[in-house]
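Blinded run. Sample ID left blank on purpose so nobody reads anything into the name before looking at the predicted structure. Input follows.
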Amino acid sequence: MRKAAIRRIVALFLILSLSVVSMGFTTLAYADQAVGENTVAGSDAIEGFVKRMYNITLDREPEQDGFKYWCDLLSGRKITAGGVACQFVFSPEFDQKIASTNMSCETYVTYHYRLFMDREPEAEGLAYWKSVMGDNWNTPEKRNTIFSGFVNSEEFGKICASYGILQGYYDASHTPEQNTNVALFAERMYEIILGRPSEADGLFYWSKLLMTGSVDGVGVGYEFVFSLEFKNLNVSNEEFIRRLYKAFMNREPDDAGMQYWLDLLSAGASREAVWGGFVHSPEFTEICAKYGITRGAKEVPSMENAEMIVALNKIRAQSGAQPLVVDDLMQKWADIRAPELGILFSHYRPDGSKCFKVAQDLGIPYTAAAENIAAGYSTAMAAMDAWMNSSGHRQNMMNDTYNHVALASYKKDGTTYWVMVFARY
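Blinded prediction complete.
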């Protein structure tokens, strides 16, 4: 929750006599029984759930302000059923009820059965929880033990599902703000990257991993962007970039930024490489900090080759030449030729055939083709500069006959070999 929201919550808690205790909840759903997508419940269902909380826990009808407050939080997906239950069960009003009625352990356990399982306790279950709680049951530790056992139960999950709201996962080691923020971070990945609300077990899974530090922000982002589900959406490069901006920079792309990334993709940069440019940005670092998680880092493919082709296309544009395009077949051609240069540095292949035989074997329907090679240059920029300063190589790079290109490198025994192939088709 944002700080301003927290202040409003605390203020209203004072009005309602329901205080936040040092026990946490998170916007999660029980993984074992929850299926399907999460949807925002209708107002009647939410009102019914909140009214049920008042009736069972506090034995009264809700007051207007408190009733609206909890309904608004639930409908806005700012809190879970477990979060609401936490505030009621550990509220000063319920504490006063325990004291004023000299409540027994059996009665306290029965309240949990009614609230979280919608039934009276069976003898075996009642005996079990009475033994767990013991005579000195009214302590934060004992009450937290029984609460977590019931709020995370399958039965409560079914109750929540019947009202169309998220169950929530109780975790006493985190504050409500921490747990909620972690869940909201996972939820925004579902909404922005996959374009849909989360499913309950998925949100449970990612929130728990984030909360325990088993995965960081970059790790979650990678799994969503390169998931089979996202791949099957088959989004265009433009839509891919737009979603990256929203998820990892929290804004719509500007025209120049969009064109920059589209040019890199057109020049052969992989989506993983482009994604790396977003998740390692200062903007994503700030987003992760806002949600209280570690950003992390991940090694991604280099965009250097694509950047060189973008630079080459800008030079070609100045002389009126058409831009060169990288496609999978051209890249395969270059990727095959680069390691061959480590065996035989020549426009002939190690088997004695010409370099163009690779293109023919790949079925590239070219009508014109060329190849530049270089050895001993540690970067693509150095190799490109060498070619631009050589008339024959420069002629290949500036020739308006060609409309396809690919660049690849291979390192062997400390020497880097470079190849750039050109074709028209």
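Unblinding after everyone has recorded impressions. The chain is about 60% helix and 5% strand.
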